[in-house]
Write a structure and sequence with these properties.
Organism (chain B): Chryseosolibacter histidini
Distance between the termini of chain A: 112 Å
CATH architecture of the largest domain in chain B: Orthogonal Bundle
Number of helices of chain A: 7
Distance between the termini of chain B: 54 Å
Shape of chain B: globular
CATH topology of the largest domain in chain B: Rna Polymerase Sigma Factor, Chain: A
Helix content of chain B: over 70%
CATH superfamily of the largest domain in chain B: RNA polymerase sigma factor, region 2, helix turn helix motif
Oligomer: heterodimer
Radius of gyration of chain A: 35 Å
Family (chain B): Belongs to the sigma-70 factor family. ECF subfamily.
Number of strands of chain B: 0
GO biological process, one term (chain B): DNA-templated transcription initiation
Number of domains of chain B: 2
Order of helices and strands of chain A: HHHHHHH
Strand content of chain A: under 5%
GO molecular function, one term (chain B): sigma factor activity
InterPro entries (chain B): RNA_pol_sigma-70-like, RNA_pol_sigma-70_dom, RNA_pol_sigma70_r2, RNA_pol_sigma70_r4_t2, RNA_pol_sigma_r2, RNA_pol_sigma_r3/r4-like, WH-like_DNA-bd_sf
Number of domains of chain A: 2
Helix content of chain A: 55-70%
Chain lengths: ~200, ~160
């Protein structure tokens, strides 16, 4: 009797209607969960991030790298013409030297700076020679961090130019190499201008 | 939809209707049941790493769903029958053999949430008094007395519905 009674209840329970979850529930779940997961993924990526190690770049790849990176390279000034900036470098040197001569004469002290004056038409080689002569005197500016960084940039670009020139002799007037050469030359002019402004 | 979201959708699809049915029976309201289902599955996906396989995945999800339903009842401030630890009188409960699922469903809907919870958890979902008492945060004795009272009231409701 008791067993039959229990079965009546069980049968009715099994017949209870079931219901279908509305579709909007999933959208609600996603709206809460997805931003959390995205944030989690970002935080994980940040935790896993490792400082990239600078790898040595082979000279063979240099020309292409320079061409690609030309626009993103450290810009001190924007340049449109290498000659224009070289003239600027020379002019800055002349003004600087003249001021130096005037001040030294006024103080009654003579310095050998007159010999270091450059004409406004000074070539890049002349600018380089001027810098070398200036630094041979043991000027403190030449040992400053800013100067050394710029000098290192200049030396590096000199090497890059040499390599590109070598490749140009093999690949003749390859447009990519020519473009890379132009980019480096512009950059060198900028660095030179920075150096001359320092000294 | 990425792989993780795809897996979540599969899990949700597998359990959504069964869990929604439990919530609908508890809350007797589509919107409340949907809200509780959403809260429950958000909790499931947030805590999935904590699932320790001590029970089946479905059983683990069901506990989270029931807790979400009870939380939803609390926010609605539904009227509960006062709970006493008075043990039920010895009385046999005889079910009418003409009782169908539809009648029972209609009668359950007329129960107060407190009685409804105890009846659903123990008789429909198959929890023991100890488990149900844990979920409802009452004593085992209270669970027993509440179930007896719930059944008595159900029988009265059924009599009115059927005859």
């Amino acid at each position: 009797m008791d067993h039959e009674n229990v079965q009546i209840l069980k049968k009715a329970i099994n017949e209870l209607p079931t219901h279908v979850a509305p579709e909007r529930v999933w959208a609600g779940i996603q709206s809460e969960i997805v931003p959390e997961q995205n944030r989690g993924a970002f935080e994980k990526a940040l935790r896993d991030y490792k400082e990239p190690v600078k790898s040595p770049v082979s000279w063979e790849k240099l020309a292409l790298r320079t061409a690609e990176a030309g626009s993103s390279r450290k810009k001190i000034f924007s340049l449109s013409n290498t000659g224009y900036w070289l003239s600027g470098v020379a002019a800055a040197l002349v003004i600087g030297v003249c001021v130096g001569v005037y001040l030294s004469t006024k103080n009654g002290t003579k310095y050998e700076t007159q010999d270091m004056a450059m004409s406004p038409e000074a070539s890049e080689e002349e600018a380089m020679r001027f810098i070398e002569r200036f630094c041979k005197g043991g000027n403190v500016i030449c040992t400053s961090t800013a100067f050394l960084e710029l000098k290192a940039e200049l030396d590096e670009s000199t090497e890059e130019l040499k390599e590109i020139s070598k490749q140009l002799s093999v690949f003749q007037n390859d447009p990519t190499l020519l473009q890379a050469k132009s980019t480096i030359e512009k950059y060198r002019a900028t660095v030179l201008k920075e150096i001359t402004l320092m000294i | 939809m990425n792989r993780e979201q795809h897996a979540q959708r599969l899990l949700y699809d597998r359990y959504k209707d069964a869990m929604y049915t439990i919530l609908f029976r508890m809350l007797d309201d589509e919107d409340d049941a949907a809200d509780a289902l959403q809260e429950a599955f958000v909790e499931v996906f947030r805590s999935l790493e904590k699932y320790r396989r001590l029970s089946s995945l479905g059983a683990w999800i069901k506990v989270i769903v029931i807790r979400a339903g009870l939380a939803q009842q609390r926010t609605k401030k539904l009227d509960f029958e006062p709970i006493t630890d008075r043990l039920p009188e010895e009385q046999s409960l005889v079910w009418d053999e003409n009782m169908t699922g539809e009648y029972l469903h209609a009668a359950i809907r007329q129960l107060s949430p407190g009685y409804r919870n105890v009846f659903l958890l123990i008789e429909v979902e198959g929890y023991s008094h100890k488990e149900a008492a844990g979920l409802l945060q009452i004593t085992e004795g209270t669970s027993k007395s509440q179930l007896f009272n719930a059944k008595k009231i159900l029988q009265q409701k059924l009599k009115k519905l059927m005859y």
